[in-house]
Design brief:
The chain has a single domain (3-222), classed as Spore Coat Polysaccharide Biosynthesis Protein SpsA, Chain A. Helices cover 31% and strands 24% of the residues. The chain contains 7 helices and 12 strands. The chain has helices at residues 32-41, 58-65, 80-89, 110-121, 166-174, 183-189, 209-222, and strands at 3-8, 26-27, 30-31, 46-53, 72-75, 97-100, 126-132, 137-140, 146-150, 156-158, 162-165, 195-198. The strands form 3 sheets. Strands 1, 4, 5, 6, 7, 10, 11 and 12 form an 8-stranded mixed beta sheet that branches. It has a two-stranded antiparallel ribbon with strand order 2-3. A hairpin with a 5-residue loop joins strand 8 (137-140) and strand 9 (146-150). Bound molecules: cytidine-5'-triphosphate (CTP) and magnesium ion.
């Protein structure tokens, strides 16, 4: 395997409601992070997994993941970008492709991991999985009055894993300014082209209680 995957998992999960940090919340009896790491480890290209855990949970996360896959666990930061930077700093020499994958996208299929990695291996500097936007999108003002309708044909909803040539991600993080919600955004700021590949509906980000309920149903239906 030539791929290292960074797994930001240090978020609180405020939008999911009160409870443990989101990566440790249960889905079908197991933490979201366990589901996510198991699927990453099932992708043949993946050599190294580095998890950025909530700072108070590092030891517990090491124990939790030991039976799932060999992983490196580091404390995350206050923003997602800081968590990714901490994980990136812990990647050993070797892997030439780095993927960044949200623990919250717990049902992401190994096939999507492989397709993103393959696109980077084929020569793309940065690759993101995307889906078309299905809803009509309006731009509104501060009073929720519509300013206009955006042409959704040119829009994409972005998922993870996002994949990068290692040197590209390292340079983008070294130059990073204000925190962004994804890593491709940092690479874009460096003027590097970011390519899209088809995403997966199973790579939905579990954000609100509805998403967790949906994930429970998807798992139950898949057996
Ligand atoms: N994340 C992280 N470190 C942070 C914030 C977020 O590693 N300081 C991770 C989350 O654990 C998650 C991913 O980034 O796997 C995407 O973030 P999000 O879905 O926003 O998760 P949370 O920040 O936990 O949720 P919320 O914003 O509702 O609190
Ligand atoms: Mg968040």
């Amino acid at each position: 395997g030539d791929v290292a995957v960074l797994v930001p998992a240090a978020g609180a999960g405020v939008r999911l409601g009160p409870g443990r940090p989101k990566a440790l919340r249960l889905l079908a009896g197991e933490p979201l992070l366990v589901h996510a790491v198991r699927r990453l480890a099932a992708a043949a290209s993946v050599h190294t997994i580095v998890v950025a855990a909530p700072a108070a949970e590092v030891a517990g996360v090491r124990e939790l993941l030991a039976p799932v896959a060999p992983v490196i666990v580091v404390p995350g930061g206050a923003e997602r970008q800081a968590s990714v930077a901490a994980a990136l700093a812990a990647v050993p020499a070797g892997p030439t492709i780095i993927l960044v994958h949200d623990a919250a996208r717990a049902l992401t299929p190994p096939e999507l991991v492989e397709s993103v990695a393959a696109a980077v291996r084929d020569g793309r500097a940065a690759v993101i999985p995307v889906l078309p936007v299905v809803d009509t999108i309006k731009e509104v003002d501060a009073d929720e009055v519509v300013l206009g309708t955006v042409d959704r044909a040119a829009l994409r909803a972005v998922q993870t894993p996002q994949g990068f040539r290692r040197s590209v991600l390292t340079a983008a993080h070294a130059a990073a300014g204000d925190p962004l919600t994804d890593d491709a955004g940092l690479v874009e700021k460096q003027g590097v082209a970011v390519s899209c590949v088809p995403g997966s509906e199973y790579a939905l980000k579990i954000t609100r209680p509805f998403d967790l309920a949906l994930a429970e149903h998807l798992l139950a239906a898949d057996g």
